[in-house]
Specification:
By secondary structure, the chain is α+β, with helices and mostly antiparallel strands. It folds into two domains: 9-294, 3-Layer(aba) Sandwich (Aminopeptidase); 303-415, Immunoglobulin-like, CATH 2.60.40. 18% of the residues lie in helices and 25% in strands. The chain has nine helices and 18 strands. It has helices spanning 16-21, 45-48, 108-119, 133-140, 150-155, 165-172, 204-215, 267-273, 281-294, and strands spanning 9-12, 31-34, 83-88, 94-102, 122-128, 176-182, 192-196, 224-227, 232-233, 261-265, 303-313, 316-325, 354-360, 366-370, 382-387, 395-402, 407-410, 414-415. The strands form four sheets. It has an eight-stranded mixed beta sheet, with helices on both faces. Strands 13, 14, 16, 17 and 18 form a five-stranded antiparallel beta sheet that branches. Helix 7 packs antiparallel against helix 9. The protein starts with 8 loop residues before the first strand and ends with a strand. This is Phage-related replication protein YjqB, UPF0714/DUF867 family. Keywords: Membrane, Plasmid, Transmembrane, Transmembrane helix.
Length: 418
């Protein structure tokens, strides 16, 4: 995989997903209350809102007891219970959200974690993993109205009702957010990402699709995208209209810019993104790069193996392996401007702002590097060499180190063929 670089709520179970599956009757939905701040104390229903009520988001008018501290409880002191939240405020412009994480919508949590660790973004994750008997019994008693599974049925909160104070404050403090969701077969076609969110001033939906469509030929297998609000997409892609994600109360849209990017992913795409298979590295790099491009950040390098050649130096013969950064045109030329105020590269006191390094993917050892590239276009001529007769590394990856903002962008792994 692309390796990492370094509630107060009370609601009735009703959501866009159970609607699209057609298995929920509104009158028999399950009320639940979730708290991310104090699992051990009963949370206030009027703080988190309910599915039935008035207002925006609706105030809770039900007198049913909260689940926190009773039926469904949070992890505590190393004990794994029914749910937990992870909150990371890295003072980034972008927040990655997976509030249907854990086993609620499978493999959304590791995707948001990838985004946080690869780009240094903020993150909020609500992770459901029903364990206790009392919490399990809630679903068991409601299987006639919800058959999707106990984590989804018990812990899923609709995006427009998700207003945990911790998540609202984190999202609202920054201008950009991306929410990772999972959609079922009745809501989206396989190999599909349904793209939505509130885009009034920004063009995040269009930018994401344009980026993915530009580079998806590098990816093995099928990758389809669909603009849900515009009801247009790739041939063969289908997405339910309820996945548009345009509502201003949707937590992903409650940023300081009042705009957001929502990605509803089919299960096969989520499984591949969350896997450790090298063959899916390019899929991760393309999708994660598309997200970065959509929110105005630099993407991950998309690297391929070029030709090989031999040369002689100091009486020795070497095999030279040429690498190409396929998306080099996506990088701003300022990344490779001379940076005399930053540490020198040997005797070169005017080396580039961004240094490029090539690593052995098996042991993360640096093989070779370039500290004086003058343009992103020079990324089509990076290389490393191995003395003739020596075995090259099985795989390599490339990192771009922006020394000015102390950020590293790591590429996919590239298999080296002999």
């Amino acid at each position: 995989m692309i390796t990492k670089i370094s509630v107060n709520r009370f609601g009735i179970f009703l959501s866009k997903y159970t609607q699209k599956l057609g298995t929920i009757a509104l009158g028999t939905t399950l009320l639940f209350f979730l708290s991310s701040l104090c699992w051990y104390a009963p949370a206030l229903a009027d703080t988190f809102g309910c599915y039935q009520g008035t207002g925006s988001p609706a105030a809770c008018t039900s007198s049913l007891p909260p689940l926190i501290g009773s039926e469904c409880i949070a992890n505590s002191g190393g004990t794994v219970n029914d749910w937990n939240t992870t909150i990371a405020d890295n003072n980034s412009n972008v927040t990655a959200l997976s509030f249907h994480g854990g086993q609620i919508e499978a493999n959304t949590s590791p995707i948001s974690e990838d985004l946080q660790e690869l780009y240094g973004w903020n993150r909020y994750d609500f992770n459901g993993h029903v364990t206790t008997a009392d919490c399990k019994s809630l679903w068991s008693a409601d299987t006639s109205t919800c058959t999707v599974g106990r984590n989804f049925c018990t812990l899923h909160i609709t995006s427009t009702r998700f207003n945990d104070n911790a998540s609202v404050n984190l999202v609202g403090a920054h201008p950009r957010a991306v929410a990772i969701h999972g959609c079922g077969s009745s809501g989206c076609s396989s190999s599909t990402i349904c793209v939505g969110g509130r885009n009034v001033i920004t063009t995040q939906i269009v930018d994401f699709r344009n980026y993915v469509n530009t580079y998806k030929a590098l990816v093995s297998g099928t990758l389809l995208t669909f603009n849900v609000p515009a009801n247009t997409g790739d041939s063969g892609a289908t997405c339910a209209s309820m996945l548009a994600g345009e509502n201003a109360n949707n937590i992903v849209n409650r940023t300081s810019s009042n705009e957001g990017l929502q990605l509803e992913m089919s299960s096969d795409i989520r499984n591949r993104l969350a896997s450790d298979d090298q063959e899916d590295d390019l899929l991760r790099a393309v999708v994660y790069g598309g997200i970065a491009d959509a929110v105005g950040e630099s993407p991950l390098p998309l690297v391929s193996l070029g030709n090989t050649e031999t040369y002689t130096a100091n009486g020795k013969t070497f095999t030279k392996y040429n690498l190409n950064v396929e998306n080099r045109s996506e990088y701003d030329s300022q990344l490779f401007a001379p940076a005399p105020t930053l540490p020198a590269c040997g005797s070169n006191t005017n080396s580039a702002r961004t240094w490029v390094n090539i690593y052995n993917a098996d042991n993360d050892q640096r093989i070779y590097g370039f500290c004086a590239l003058s343009s992103p276009q020079n990324l089509n001529s990076i290389w490393f060499a191995v003395e003739l007769g020596q075995t090259p590394p099985a795989s390599v990856y490339v990192s771009l180190v922006d020394r000015q903002i102390n950020t590293t962008y790591r590429s996919n792994r590239v298999k080296i063929t002999i």
